């Protein structure tokens, strides 16, 4: 099989490229920045400079391939225009480019954010979940969902087979271990460095980047056109994740827990069109305050998707970040407002605030501090 991969210089994309090559497939990757090619470049890779928003460039990039893995995207909330271009518009361009170049199949990397959070009582979502997450006003999730709609519509017009995969919260070590980490892995690095100011009592489904990369290839081989496959893992609260990081790393930084109900209050200024004054983007409250729990039963059944043990994934992520910290990779980082908040809470911990909060937990019946 000859595959073209967009987003190949990213965390997941680089693993996908390695997975394809290890199984003997020919791989062509697209890139915009030559500086990022060091993450994946090998002598047996063909590279093509192409902007995923330029139809002509994408047609040239995919010509002669058997499958296009459209793994490029933008995990952020701002700037909104760029989020929508890369996550909602580019999938249509990718499918139309594949059709024009005679590429029969596209595997689109979407997100669990395009499916939505868990239902009542934390019931994990599956592929049949109606998209109701728009009520959360999350730009990224809305854009990813729109990208799926656009890709399926383009497939219907052109006859290209489109298979959608929806990874959950991806952890693990990057292919290039000198990388400092991307969006999903930063919670681990921030905790180990004592720069995680707080978590909300929402949660996520933690999956391993290598499992997700393998799931992409399985989707290309076995996925049914027009269908989506959730590539999830272990459903945890953020509190449970931080506790697990503390247990496995031996690093104990107390992290305050913000009640999930506070998310709506914290986003009130945003809804009123007023400056929030928050230390983080207001959308982060809606994201971290929800339970992004999912089941991969369909992917297990149809794609033979495998989920490795949680401890194995977390240990690998911790070991990689610990290597970076020991090598002084973050020595030049200046203090941020968030890191100062985390430092202040650690000082409070040394002054005895943690036992007080632990005692209060028994009274209120919920966790107030994690990692201690």
What does this structure look like?
With 372 residues, the chain is α/β, with parallel strands linked by helices. It is 44% helix and 16% strand. The chain contains 14 helices and 14 strands. The strands form three sheets. Strands 3-2-1-4-5-6-10 form a seven-stranded parallel β-sheet, sandwiched between helices. Helix 3 links the parallel strand 4 and strand 5 (105-109). The N and C termini lie far apart (50 Å).
Low-confidence residue ranges: none
Order of strands in the sheet with the most strands?
Answer: 3-2-1-4-5-6-10
Structural category is alpha/beta
- Please compute the radius of gyration using only Cα atoms: 21 Å
Strand percent estimate: 15-25%
Described by the principal axes of the CA atoms, the overall outline is globular
Specify the number of helices: 14
Largest sheet: 7 strands, parallel
Give a count of the beta strands, DSSP E runs of length 2 or more: 14
Average pLDDT over all residues: 89
The arrangement of helices and strands along the chain is EHEEHEHEHEEHEEHEEHEHHHEHHHHE
Q: How much helix, percentage-wise, in residues?
A: 40-55%
> What is the straight-line distance between the termini?
50 Å
Summarize this, please?
The chain has a seven-stranded parallel β-sheet, with helices on both faces. Strands 7, 9, 11 and 13 form a four-stranded mixed β-sheet that branches. It has 14 helices and 14 strands.
